[in-house]
Amino acid sequence: MLKLPVYLDNNATTPCDPRVVEAMIPYFTENFGNAASRNHPFGWAAEEAVDYAREQVAKLVGADPKEIIFTSGATEADNLAIKGVFEMYAAKGNHIITATTEHKAVLDTCKHIEKLGGEVTYLQVKADGLIDLSELEAAIKPTTILVAIMYANNEIGVVQPIKEISAIAKKHGVLVFTDAVQAVGKIPVDVQKDGIDLMAFTAHKMYGPKGIGALYVRRKNPRVKVTAQLDGGGHERGMRSGTLNVPGIVGFGKAAELARLEMEGDAKRLGKLRDKLETELLKIEEAYVNGNREHRLPHVTNISFKHVEGEGLLMGFNKNIALSSGSACTSASLEPSYVLKALGLGDDLAHSSLRFGLGRFTTEEQIDYTIEQVRNTVLKLREMSPLWEMYKEGIDLNSIEWAAH
Amino acid sequence: MAYSDKVIDHYQNPKNVGTLDKSSKSVGTGLVGAPECGDVMRLQIEVDNETGVIKDAKFKTFGCGSAIASSSLATEWLKGKTVDQAIAIDNMDIVEELNLPPVKIHCSVLAEDAIKAAINDYRVKNGLEQIKFEESIVH
């Protein structure tokens, strides 16, 4: 049975797994205590639940529970990591290295650091979306305190060589921070094996609730410290004050436990579905995958359909299929995706892209339906695309002087 | 952002998609926009040389649903009008008819520009002077 609407925007957020919701419910009602209330059973129950969840979250990424700092989400974790390191290690230096394809939560935090007098190097990525390791090494200077490179990209799904990145950073005594929001719970991430010092991730991208995330902060080899960005009761080992979001943390813990147990099976199944989707859609003329196809999340693909515009394309089926487009025509700005542009895609191809993010609840029937709908709409829109007509007539579109507006 | 019913209708059943013979003297072609901006419109009119009435109008558009709807609507409005009447079509008429939200006003501007460009192309082909239009504001 085909279940509509189809949700293929799992990079934006995932639905809560019903098992997660079930685990959370008692912590809204009977076990509503404050985990910091040390002198009565309500507090004890909350604290115990938080401890268990922290263990589950830590286990998923190969960390010690003491290294998990709960935050309101990955944006806060990104801010805490970058600003916290910048302040804490000010005596050592003020230079941070990141990449142009990072999430806005990292890029804009880096912009803020620059305003505070910090220096930031933004590495370009190669055409496949991966950073160049020799460029990374060349960018390190005596004042470099942090390398901030995401684990997997939210738009194209490419997975950066984190192990190699951290090896280079270690060699120069520089800390490594990774925004691993899209990777954790989807592919194996191990802070020890990967040599990560700080890592941001969040529950709502792995079938947990929104409003709860974590920052992993290494405690040994080296012991990493960050300056708190919120003043208050000194929760979370003094690094993040604020009453703990107990139901959220419980949900995060359950989601982490399920991911640890089911990730491998999910990845295998979704990889097959993604490959089917991709293979079928690439049969359409002038369709291209964006980003490296080998080093990539198994459930993600980003495809450009030349000479049709992404938002117009979405309109053909967005009542029944939830997808996102690399075109920013929906927002006030007409700028297409900065990630796709960083790959060197022309604006026209960047405007013509769709991002498919499969998830735990995606079915094969839904993928078959999506293939049919996307194909039909692409063909229909090309029939009314002047660019397609010119392309078919052999006119070089670059030879035309467009009246840019 | 939800589209208005009229935009959806034009998107699903666009009127007058197609191509007229651009080498014909009675056909005026306007090609406006740019691929990097995410919208390109080509609008064509076929004019009865005797009466100055627009006999036919066709469009092809690369762009979002609002851009497609704006050009589809423009071709509908053009048919049966004289060239002089067509010049008077204002982008805000399109905005009103299609209930375009502020972020989509540029689609209507593009349609108006396409109409003017097609008219000027027709005029030049027929030995007439180009009409100088004021620069559109919302660019």
- The unreliable regions of chain A are none
Class inferred from helices and paired strands of chain B: alpha+beta
Strands side by side in the biggest sheet of chain B: 1-2-3
Domain count of chain A, please report it: 2
CATH class designation of chain B = Alpha Beta
How large, in whole angstroms, is the Cα Rg of chain A?
22 Å
Explain how this protein is built.
The complex is a heterodimer of chains A (405) and B (139). Chain A has helices at residues 18-24, 41-60, 74-88, 104-115, 133-139, 162-171, 246-281, 310-315, 338-342, 347-350, 364-383, 386-392; strands at residues 6-7, 68-71, 95-99, 119-123, 144-148, 175-179, 198-202, 213-217, 287-289, 300-305, 321-322, 324-325, 353-357. By secondary structure, chain A is of the alpha/beta class. Chain A has a seven-stranded mixed sheet, sandwiched between helices. In chain A, helix 2 (41-60) runs parallel beside helix 7 (246-281) and helix 3 packs parallel to helix 4 (104-115). The relative contact order of chain A is 0.16. By secondary structure, chain B is an alpha+beta fold. Chain B has a single domain, classed as Alpha-Beta Complex (Sufe protein. Chain: A). In chain B, 40% of the residues lie in helices and 19% in strands. Chain B has five helices and three strands. A three-stranded antiparallel sheet of chain B has the order 1-2-3. The longest helix of chain B is centred in the last third of the chain and has 21 residues, at 105-125. Chain B is globular. The two termini of chain B are 21 Å apart. Chain A binds chain B through residues 307-312, 315-316, 327, 329-332, 334, 336, 346-348, 351, 383-389, 397, 400, 402-405, and chain B through 1, 3, 8, 11, 14, 17, 19, 31-42, 59-65, 67-68, 103, 106, 109-110, 113, 139.
